[in-house]
């Protein structure tokens, strides 16, 4: 995206880009998630050239999937497809697997590998491992389940969306994979040229046609409709597929997508260096900003921003106005003496402000997006991403997968030293580099090519939903908002015809935090793709098992997640119920006027 590594001015991308988006007309409300669920159960690149505005021109409407019944299971051991080996087939009885306390119906579990090879680079054996689960009572749909992190493990192909749904329970045939390497090869697989490309995008392109052929063998016909979903790195897989493989899928559901993952990982190393400046102990970054101090800042954010949506309920729906209304240096007490949890030092305030403003080089060039201030920063997951992940996840990812050429394995002995010693001024540009056998940079093989030009997706009637938490500690919703703003500009303010973005107040990375993080996004996507019912809001509820839901919230609290850039505003009625809110364009409130 064009606003990275370009020396752009400081400030949130959403603050720079939302004014135009706010002024465009919104579509009328069409559906709530409950109805959709019932239906189912029953940077360096140049900006894209703008497409001609389409106005209210109707896009192609795809037909609904038709149900079917499993015809073959045990005999799938003989399934033949190029470079594919079936390693096991088993019929799983109804109720043997559950999700959310509910049984999953009888299904056929198929495991196998594709493209097994011995690498000429490191002599190791690589393959794309996969699992498919094929329900006896089939909805006529295929779901590619993108998994998170560095992959390397075949997660059960249940089709979980982190919103409480399971694609398998809905009758989808579901595929899961390890993206071309196993856990013992993490993270050094990133030094193997083909393995890094499989991880980036090629495993999805390789597996999808095979999966459809396997479905045909199992049901005597292929899927009527195909979908892809995932959170975190799986959300990245989904957004990459929207750009690279739009002809293979009809619906895309990306949750907390790290679609600029190399930039975000470098920003994490930069962030670790900033936190280290104020950490009480050199070995524990979490001492830079303790739980008590994070609560102090969260309360200050709420004091300024909680009532901007018309109701003080411990949630900040009007995030855009909040970013203008809240100042960490002004609104959080500064310590006059020692740190005691009731104040922050001058240096702490400076570091917090800098980290939220986004990673930059010493000559003020943007590395990655800003982050919005949101009271969800109190959650343990936020701290884990900010203070633990730079050493355990981001250092090896940057060193071996995203930097070209990759680092030597010796850095594994001191990942903390690598993170704190990483020179962003000289090393960050290597995520854009190629070298010798590494013919694609990580910003090429990891990110969606031309992510704001999705003609193939749009023109064939496919649809895309993106959901992101306002307190994601690693992938910024500001980045996602900026992506949608650019997408919308490309399509003449009509991107909502085929793509919609929803932000979740308080939610951390993928799920969790003081948030209504349970949603039926997959149900809404299918209703949009197959019935033409566009979601103007998603009704989301709290997860009663989430320990970070405040005790004074109802265990059944629900809120509307609004189509960006609209926000939920309280109208009247029960403050714990979504129906008491309406989605409106964000308006400056009293807090803004008091600055």
Quick overview of this protein structure:
The chain has 17 helices and 17 strands.
Descriptive report:
There is one protein chain. Helix 2 packs across helix 16 (521-531) and helix 5 (261-276) crosses helix 10. This protein has 595 residues and is of the alpha/beta class. The chain contains 17 helices and 17 strands. The protein has helices at residues 13-23, 33-41, 193-219, 233-244, 261-276, 291-305, 319-325, 328-331, 346-357, 380-402, 415-421, 424-427, 442-445, 455-459, 477-490, 521-531, 590-593; strands at 68-69, 84-92, 98-99, 102-103, 107-118, 125-135, 137-138, 141-146, 173-177, 225-231, 251-255, 463-469, 499-504, 537-541, 558-562, 567-570, 581-584. Strands 2-5-6-9-8-10-11-12-13 form a nine-stranded mixed beta sheet, sandwiched between helices. A two-stranded antiparallel sheet has the order 1-7. Strands 3-4 form a two-stranded antiparallel sheet. The model is unreliable at 1-55 and 590-595 (pLDDT under 50).
